[in-house]
Design brief:
With 198 residues, this protein is an alpha/beta fold. It is built from nine helices and seven strands. The longest helix is centred in the last third of the chain and has 17 residues.
Length: 198
């Protein structure tokens, strides 16, 4: 069954999905209404056409700029720097942070060929240069790469700007080696409140 095997292979490439889970998914889809399957396939096929990175912050959006960047209700003097667009969703889900965001698109990982030039650091510096930013909150994951990236950003911001904004890091309520995507809301909220300056 080539169609079955091909779809199983497609699903098993998704993060966190092994071959057994992929087989279960395909079997489940085979029992569903054809109208649902058509809608499901259409949603996947048009995903990259409809959703793009925001030209300002880099998070996923259907409108450019994204609703966060264009909102008049957001605090314009804070930027929370995150690794990936899904981190924006995670932080937004707890509903306490009311500032802006900036997505780096990764972390500094020299062994994988990811240096500062491969990340969205220059656009961040331009946003700071344009003025009005009092605080840059670095919310990279508490890993070796996350800490390296945070230290690099702090150094660049403090060296590049005479009146540099305050640079803070989320408190250590997040376990070392943890991932923002899997942190509970309460811990994340406390991490924001207890963030420390470099």
């Amino acid at each position: 069954m080539d169609a079955f095997d091909n779809l199983t292979s497609n699903f098993s490439r998704l993060p966190g999905i092994g071959k057994k889970s992929a087989i279960r998914m395909v079997n489940w889809l085979l029992r569903q209404d054809p109208a649902y399957l058509k809608q499901f396939a259409q949603n996947i096929s048009t995903l990259q056409e409809k959703i793009k990175p925001c030209s300002i912050c880099g998070t996923w959006t259907e409108t450019d700029p994204c609703p966060i960047c264009s909102s008049e209700l957001r605090s314009k003097n804070q930027i929370c720097v995150v690794e990936q667009p899904q981190d924006v969703s995670t932080i937004e889900s707890y509903g306490e942070y009311k500032g802006l965001y900036h997505v780096l698109g990764g972390l500094i990982k020299p062994l994988e060929g990811m240096g500062p030039a491969q990340l969205s650091i220059q656009p961040l510096l331009m946003r700071i240069k344009n003025g009005g930013i009092d605080e840059v909150i670095i919310a990279t994951n508490p890993t070796v790469e996350g800490d390296t990236t945070a230290l690099y950003l702090n150094k660049v911001i403090s060296e590049q700007f005479e009146n540099a904004p305050k640079v803070t890091r989320l408190a250590t309520g997040i376990p070392v080696g943890g991932d923002l995507e899997y942190i509970d809301r309460r811990t994340l909220a406390l991490s924001f409140r207890g963030r420390s300056e470099f």
